[in-house]
Design a protein that fits this description.
This protein is of the alpha/beta class and 468 residues long. It is built from 13 helices and 13 strands. The chain is globular and about 70 Å long.
Length: 468
């Protein structure tokens, strides 16, 4: 969660209430305007509270037009009904809600089969609030396995985790929270993600694992997980170091199995110990639900699994959170049941078709250079062409926002700070028709942008947010 500052003025300000909002005494309710930064003294009518909150939320952006986020912004009404019926069920109360717990187990089994676990029945996994928690759990398992193998040196030795500089911020958090050194493979030239050989060279006896990203948030490209495992196999032959791999498939693990079936990145590679994904990204469920799976029980140290006698049952649990609603897990099972393999393949192919088609239209405008084309994740990144000097990507992002489109502009990490790009995430619900409207709006802006004397964005750090 981002940290928020409190009110700058003591007591903050007060919200104004339209007289029509007060069902009994409009004038009285208007006079009793509630404060914004402390609890009101008295209750108010539910319709009044609802309208006040709703009015303020109108100023938020339209989620369907948010091309910055990977998170699902549309589900079928039937899924919404199921979620409403399950939002009061606490996922941790497995003895009280055994069928919800069973649906979670079924989802884990389905993912284990989808990701080619050697024995899907022996794979272990759990639902989480999202990929960030799933990555924390996977990182904890890697660290504990390393500590167990190096009991004679730990805690004196400092563990490290090798990954590309393009990893999602949750991995930086993991390394900070769990006191693990982050060893980052930098970007070089037109390589915007991890290089397998460079990653292997950063490994030593204190390396708990290497993270491979199936779908970089910076540009939508897949990291070469099979090549990474081959480089680590060669490292073991030379040095005896046996380094496991975790695949962060927050987005790609729910796309590649359907669209890139010949791509080997999952538990078919013996070095892959664990995989995570976000059910609320290309898993097609509203936030927040994620999944963490290990190839077998050996990959998840037993001492990390807590067995809690809670509400009448002995319950094994491995999570950072305790109480959370069961609605998202139920929605995930609904979506698996509703779509099946063929349905997921059709949805993801439609998203990829929109991405590649829109990328081609952007390139055809002549003012932009594509970094990726949306043919892996349905995501593409582009920057201004070398001869464009009147405006930059931050100007484009700001002008598109005037039409309601939320398209992030951001600068790449170390070794490629010179490169600033726009990124478009195509999700289910962002149709070919919407993509056509975006292309038209972008084309309509270009004459004005070309007439600028220079790029107008002064504070590029504040110009737009980078959203994972």
């Amino acid at each position: 969660m981002p940290l928020n500052e409190g009110p700058r003025r003591p007591g903050g300000h007060r919200l104004s209430v339209n007289p029509f909002y007060g069902p009994a005494n409009p004038v009285g309710d208007m006079a009793e305007a509630p404060p914004t930064h402390r609890l009101p003294d008295r209750p108010m009518a539910p319709a009044t509270a609802h309208q006040l909150v709703r009015d303020e939320l109108m100023l938020d952006g339209n989620a369907r037009l948010n091309l910055a986020t990977f998170v699902t912004t549309w589900m079928e009404p039937e899924a919404g009904v199921l979620m409403a019926e399950c939002r009061d069920k606490n996922m941790i109360d497995k003895d009280e809600y055994p069928r919800t717990a069973e649906l979670e187990r079924r989802c884990v089994a389905m993912l284990a089969d989808l990701w080619h676990a050697p024995d899907p029945a022996a794979a272990v996994g759990c639902s989480t609030t999202g990929s960030s928690e799933a990555c924390m759990l996977a990182g904890m398992a890697l660290k504990r396995r390393w500590a167990r193998r190096n009991a004679d040196r730990y805690p004196g030795a400092r563990p490290n985790l090798v990954m590309g500089v393009n990893v999602q911020v949750c991995w930086e958090k993991f390394c900070t929270f769990w006191e693990v050194e982050a060893r980052l493979v930098p970007m070089e030239g037109d390589r915007f993600h991890l290089d397998p050989q460079a990653a292997a060279e950063l490994c030593d006896e204190n390396t708990i694992g290497v993270v491979g990203i199936l779908g970089s948030t910076f540009d939508g490209s897949y990291e070469p997980v099979a090549e990474l495992c081959a480089a680590l196999d060669a490292l073991r032959e030379r040095t005896g170091l046996d380094i496991p791999v975790h695949v962060d498939g927050a987005s790609g693990a729910m796309g590649a199995p359907f669209l890139d079936e010949d791509l080997v990145w999952d538990f078919r590679l013996p070095r892959v110990a664990s995989i995570n994904t976000s059910g609320h990204k290309y898993g097609l469920v509203y936030p927040g639900v994620g999944w963490a799976l290990w190839r077998d029980a050996e990959a998840l140290p037993e001492e990390l699994v807590f067995r809690v006698n809670y509400l009448g049952g002995d319950m094994p649990t491995f999570a950072l959170n305790f109480s959370r609603p069961g609605a998202q897990v139920v929605a995930q099972y609904y979506t698996f049941l509703r779509l099946g393999r063929d349905g997921y393949r059709a949805v993801q192919q439609a998203a990829r078709d929109v991405a590649t088609g829109l990328a081609a239209r952007v390139e055809a405008l002549g003012d932009f250079r594509l970094l990726t084309r949306g043919d892996q994740l349905p995501v593409f990144a582009f920057t201004t062409a070398p001869d464009v000097t009147a405006y930059d990507v931050f100007d484009v992002s700001r002008r598109l926002r005037e039409s309601g489109w939320l398209v992030p502009a951001y600068t790449f990490p170390p070794h490629r700070e010179d490169l600033s790009v726009l990124r478009v995430v195509c999700r289910n619900g962002f149709s070919a028709d919407l993509a056509d409207l975006l292309a038209q709006d972008l084309e309509r802006l270009l004459p004005e942008l070309r007439r600028q004397p220079r790029p107008l964005t002064r504070d590029k750090d504040a110009a737009t947010g980078f959203h994972h």
